[in-house]
Design a protein that fits this description.
Blueprint lengths: L1 H13 L9 H11 L2 H23 L8 H15 L7 H27 L7 H45 L3
Helix pairs in contact: 1-3, 2-3, 2-4, 2-5, 2-6, 3-4, 4-5, 5-6
């Protein structure tokens, strides 16, 4: 399952898409809920490093910058949040934590953009300007994270049920 999530996350970042509408946040959140302890922490980061590298090669995008640790830290938080998605209200939790994941990504990644100091002055006014200018990206982030999270979570849950039924049925 983790290999498929990596492939989906990498390919979705490489093909044309609306800005911030990728499955990486969803892979982190859903991976935190559905993957084993080792794979929940490695899958999103393998996808990020690989897709960052490929974006650098194929699209001449600078793959890593001073903002990268903020972005990666934000995805680590989403993995942690995914650990709270279980039980009878798991789809409600998934929706709420997907929104929380989007919001914390917005706050942390844009803090990194501001701290980098290339686009905004390192003043409170510059920080406010940074967040204000990033608001249009937040809408896409929320939409992308919600759609990808519900889609991936549902596919994984249904696949697990199908596999379990097949393993229990006599040959």
């Amino acid at each position: 399952m983790n290999h498929i999530l990596i492939l989906v996350a990498v390919l979705a970042r490489l093909i044309p898409h609306p800005v911030n509408v990728t499955p990486v946040g969803a892979v982190a959140l859903v991976g935190g809920a559905k993957l084993s302890k080792l794979w929940r922490w490695t899958t999103p980061f393998i996808a990020l490093v690989l897709s960052d590298f490929l974006l650098g090669i194929f699209f001449d995008v600078k793959p890593w910058s001073l903002v990268t640790p903020f972005i990666y830290a934000s995805f680590a938080i989403s993995i942690f949040l995914g650990g709270f998605i279980s039980g009878s209200n798991r789809y409600l939790k998934l929706g709420m934590l997907s929104v929380v994941g989007s919001l914390q990504f917005f706050v942390i990644s844009n803090l990194g953009v501001w701290m980098e100091g290339m686009l905004y002055t390192k003043t409170l006014e510059g920080l406010f300007q940074c967040y204000l200018m990033a608001l249009p990206f937040l809408k896409n982030q929320l939409l992308g994270d919600l759609c990808w999270s519900f889609g991936l979570f549902t596919i994984i849950e249904r696949s697990q049920v199908w596999i379990q039924k097949r393993s229990l049925s006599p040959c």
